[in-house]
Amino acid sequence: MKALQSESVGLVLSGGGVRGMAHIGVLRALEQHGISAQIVSGSSVGALVAALYANGNPVQDMLKFFKETPLFKYNFITILKPGLVDTERYFDIFKGYFPENSFEALERQLHVVATNLQKGEEEFFSQGELIHPLLASAALPPVFGPVEINNCLYADGGIMNNFPLEPIKDKADFMIGSNVSVIKQVEKKNISSSLQLANRTTALMIYAINRQKIHQCDLIFEAMELEKIGVLDKKGIEKAYVIGYDHAARKLEKYLSKE
């Protein structure tokens, strides 16, 4: 424990929609054990949680952010832009939590990934304006419209990189990962419709692409119970948080008992 607390710690938070509330539970468990990350990287919802953590927001403020931020608001719906919801309409909500709108104003070093739709490339952001990269990283198509940054359109970071280990892997002595895009064996009945088939294959592709990076972490949290929670199911916020906390608390106790 003393060694872990004295080492520089890096933290990677995956994408995964509402399941990302489990990241907040993980952060609470780490905090209770006196473990703090100095550098953090996130994709999609993981980027939002990472930003709140880097900003020094307590756990209750993080949960409040997600509970009070509407996923679907009538006057946010657009027919003039690609995507069902105009992602830009969330800017003022984010500004309330990040008033300085700057990576440099954060308490911890933060890296977020978004997908450049025009170039077909992932791009990392860690300097300058904060809010637009956050909005872009979490803009899950086709629900949320892409975000324009420097005359290019950006969307969800998880499209190309759902577990962004790359920008911080050589900057910390101990790497912790929280992956909420979990995969476990399912029954044949759970792949009985076209939608279920599409969801399963997409989840498998995302996990396969990121599996090697996930296992490069010194400590990884993956609560399999999260698979029961819908990606856009706001009713699952509290449940995902509790699942994440319980899983992390158990795993930390087991891990630290071996030290």
Description:
It is a single chain. With 259 residues, the chain is α/β, with parallel strands linked by helices. Helices cover 36% and strands 15% of the residues. It contains eight helices and eight strands; from the N terminus they run αβαβαααββαβββαβα. Strands 1, 2, 3, 4, 5, 6, 7 and 8 form an eight-stranded mixed sheet that branches. A hairpin with a 2-residue loop joins β5 (147-149) and β6 (152-155). It is globular, with a radius of gyration of 17 Å. The termini are close together. The mean pLDDT is 90.
Brief summary:
The chain is an alpha/beta fold.
Layout of strands and helices, then pairs:
Elements: H1 2-6, E1 9-13, H2 21-32, E2 39-43, H3 45-54, H4 59-68, H5 91-97, E3 109-116, E4 121-125, H6 131-137, E5 147-149, E6 152-155, E7 174-178, H7 194-214, E8 219-221, H8 237-257
Parallel strand pairs: 1-2, 1-7, 2-3, 7-8
Antiparallel strand pairs: 3-4, 3-6, 5-6
Helix pairs in contact: 2-3, 2-4, 2-8
